[in-house]
Amino acid sequence: MTEDSANDSANKGLRRAASMASLAVALVLVGVKVWAWLATGSISLLTSAADGLVDVLASIVTFVGVRYAERPADSGHRYGHGKAEAVAALIQALLLAGAAIGLGAESVGRVISPQPLSELGLGIWIIVGSTFAAAGLVAMQTYVVKRTGSTAIAADRAHYVTDVAVNLAVLGALVLDRLFGWTRSDAVGALLIACYMLWNARGMMLHALVQLLDRELEATDRERIKATVLGCRGVRGVHDIRTRDGGDRVFVEFHVEVDGHLSVDEGHGIGDCAEAAVRKIFAVADVVAHLEPAGIDDERLDDRVA
Fold first, then answer.
1. Into which CATH architecture does domain 3-212 fall?
2. Residues facing residue 257 across a β-bridge
3. 187 contacts: CB under 8 Å, gap ≥ 6
4. Domain with CATH 3.30.70.1350 in the chain
5. Whole-number pLDDT of residue 290
6. pTM check: above 0.90
7. What is the predicted pLDDT for the residue at 77?
8. pLDDT for residue 233
């Protein structure tokens, strides 16, 4: 097994573990929060429980998306299945946005007509425990995202970062109600949480669309690719660089210019070296070089884009 395949296998294992842990934690937390909402009548706890329910659905989507994305290329998907992670992230964003809009409307009603709460002590302790559980999961997911670059795990992590913020807002609302009798603090806290959920959904959606719409990599990455190719022995020039993020890997294509008098075998060797050099820039990359004689006057993508 090569070093690249060993790293790829380890990354797949990390993504699987993270998605399974996310699903398990989400199932436990949503059950506890629903129980707490029924006991207290708190709209902010209902908001937190609904966010947890979205987390459960999102974690299931992530669980399925990550596994589908790991499938190797086949006759129908020669670029692989990596974009399944971006689809999973987009579905999560839509779920989160829908929950935020519904809960926001309910919160406005409670602000106008506040309702007294009960069993506040129980609600406070449950929220404290939920916060620690969500924070621990976020720490694990952060490590996995740094190692693997998984879009779906990153989107799932955004849910739990939201969950930590949601829990803190709920905690503040319940403490204010218990200590000072501010009955509207519960509804105001829920409304703020709903707005934050909507903002997070927007960010997740935009990030997923970068992959789904085949947006180019950042300009700095493209410059690194160009400099790397030009640094290879025998390369006279490079143009028509095309890149995209495929979820589980990046795809890079470029036209490399060499001395037109070289043999096919010599030119092919230069192209192979350029591809290998570019692959080293990224964790996982699929790189294709198209060989051309230097100075050829032909139609170029760079000209059409410019």
1. Up-down Bundle (1.20)
2. 237, 292
3. 43, 44, 107, 108, 110, 111, 114
4. 219-305
5. 93
6. no
7. 76
8. 93
CB 161 within 8 A of CB 140: no
| From-to residues of CATH 1.20.1510.10 in the chain | 3-212
> In this structure, are residues 195 and 162 in contact, taking their beta carbons and an 8 Å threshold?
no
- Other C-beta atoms closer than 10 Å to the C-beta of 99 total 22
Q: State the amino acid at position 106 in one-letter form.
A: E
pLDDT band, residue 289 (cuts 50/70/90): very high
Band (pLDDT 50/70/90 cuts) for residue 129 is: confident
The answer for residues whose C-beta is within 8 angstroms of residue 193's C-beta and 6 or more apart is: 44, 47, 48, 51, 103, 165, 166, 169, 170
Q: Six-digit token pair at 254?
A: 């470029």
Q: Token pair of 45, please? A: 């706890």
Ramachandran angles phi, psi of 304, nearest 5°: -65, -40
φ and ψ of 41, to 5 deg: 75, 15
Q: Which residue has the tokens 């290998």?
A: 276
Helix residue ranges per DSSP H, the chain: 3-40, 43-69, 84-112, 120-148, 151-180, 184-212, 219-230, 264-279, 301-305
**What sign does the CA torsion over 61, 67, 70, 75 have?**
negative
Please give the CATH architecture assigned to the domain spanning 219-305: 2-Layer Sandwich (3.30)
